[in-house]
Design goal:
Length: 267
């Protein structure tokens, strides 16, 4: 385990393997542990760096408002700490939002970007959107983390053979700091950088599960707004694709990274 300090906040990260650096950024309520099915495969060919953003995992949980730009600042500070001019970045859900934020603010630091089950904005555009966001905001405050964990486990991993994955969620989610969890949720709601997507010049792989929270069509729409992006749909998967379809996800990500590395000298 390694730590560094950014703006008075101690942040935890882990490193594995050697080669071109690949940074993994988790989602809301998660941590470095949720990349357990990716790290061994990636570390066989790359230098893998997994970060706990503020408010999560083994990192500090300062009592303040969080913003997606704060999380992106944590990632940027990590790159500076490790003296990495450019990296491949992989982000899931909130981690994908962090990737988008870093991509529009500091595009020169990304060699490639992989966005998993995420989007460049979380803004209500209809009554249904307002109701869904309001429901999640309210339930997150009313329910205990243990109750949320059980519901989330059933939602993400509904199959009988996915009992071990459900157990992981039920065990890990309640370990979150409730205040930091809610502050992170608040940071997501209303955030957006969609109008700046043209600034992301690096090759971008957008991965979506066929049964993600948001429809594939939403990802298709914003992929068309990115300068150099492609969409990959992974079948029989929900929001936690790296966990419920690790082989399909890993092989696709490795192929993408190899392609980017091959053409990088000519870019």
């Amino acid at each position: 385990m390694s730590y560094f300090t950014h703006n008075g906040c101690q942040l935890h990260y882990e490193e594995y393997g050697h080669g071109a650096p690949v940074v993994l950024v988790h989602g809301l309520g998660s941590s470095t542990r949720d990349w357990e099915y990716q790290i061994p495969d990636l570390a066989a060919q790359y230098r893998v760096i997994a970060l706990d953003v503020r408010g999560h995992g083994r990192s500090d949980k300062p009592s303040e408002r969080y913003q997606i730009s704060d999380f992106a600042g944590d990632v940027l500070a990590l790159l500076d700490h490790l003296r990495l001019p450019q990296v491949h970045l992989v982000g899931i859900s909130m981690g994908g939002m962090i990737g988008f934020q870093l991509g529009v603010d500091n595009p020169e630091r990304l060699k490639s970007l992989c966005i998993v089950n995420s989007g460049p904005e979380v803004k209500a555009k209809s009554l249904r959107d307002w109701l869904e966001i309001g429901k999640r905001w309210s339930l997150s405050r009313l329910l205990s983390l243990e109750t949320i964990a059980k519901g989330l486990g059933r939602l993400l991993f509904p199959k009988p053979e996915q009992g071990e994955l459900r157990r992981k969620i039920e065990e890990r989610w309640p370990q979150n700091d409730k205040r930091a969890y809610l502050a992170s949720l608040d940071a997501i709601i209303g955030w957006g950088v969609r109008e700046r997507l043209s600034l992301i010049s690096c090759p971008t792989l957008v991965v979506t599960a066929d049964r993600d929270y948001t429809p594939v069509a939403q990802k298709e729409a914003y992929v068309r707004e990115l300068p150099d992006a492609r969409l990959l749909v992974i079948e029989d998967s929900r929001h936690a694709t790296p966990m419920d379809q690790p082989q399909a996800f890993n092989s696709s990500l490795l192929a993408f990274l190899a392609e980017v590395e091959q053409v990088a000298p000519n870019r």
